[in-house]
Amino acid sequence: MALGEKIKKCxxxxxxxxxxxxxxxxxxxxxxxxxxxxKASPSIENLKKIANELDVxxxxxxxxxxxxxxxxxxxxxxxxxxxxxxxKTMISLLxxxxxxxxxxxxxxxxxxxxxxxxxxxxxxxxxxxFVLEGQIEVQIESKSYILDEGDSLYFKSTQKHKxxxxxxxxxxxxxxxxxxxx
Length: 182
Hints:
Elements: H1 3-13, H2 18-24, H3 29-36, H4 44-53, H5 58-62, E1 81-84, E2 89-93, E3 104-110, E4 126-133, E5 135-140, E6 143-148, E7 152-156, E8 161-164, E9 171-178
Antiparallel strand pairs: 1-2, 2-3, 3-9, 4-7, 4-9, 5-6, 5-8
């Protein structure tokens, strides 16, 4: 089942109309409808807002949940991915939702000019970023951090935050979020 179809199913399971969910996540009903039909892709910020409002993890919208395990191997060519075309960002899950976990490791690939979204967002938990290549700007509250290859950043997710790729090269970064929001 595609991302948009899963969003629609979760929305209907919660008995939300398009308009109700759209108003709760501050999107237009027509844009949400386009996402559900696979005609548009949400920004990372909006995908998280939708998942939070539907009380699901982003990973449950990206992949099938076949039951929990204690260990998990994800091969490079088998990663579940979601691309946010408007955000110029590809997210690859480094684990599956099949495993019971307290953290979510994610590979972010952010094209030049890519960003999490226009607005800051917050959620419960903590985040750790390790930059594999490129340069990323992470804004937390009113402070901006420029991270280069090999740099890392740890912060509380309850602080307003967003990111962008200010450079002209692809950014690849490992992002670990706890508790899992994806």
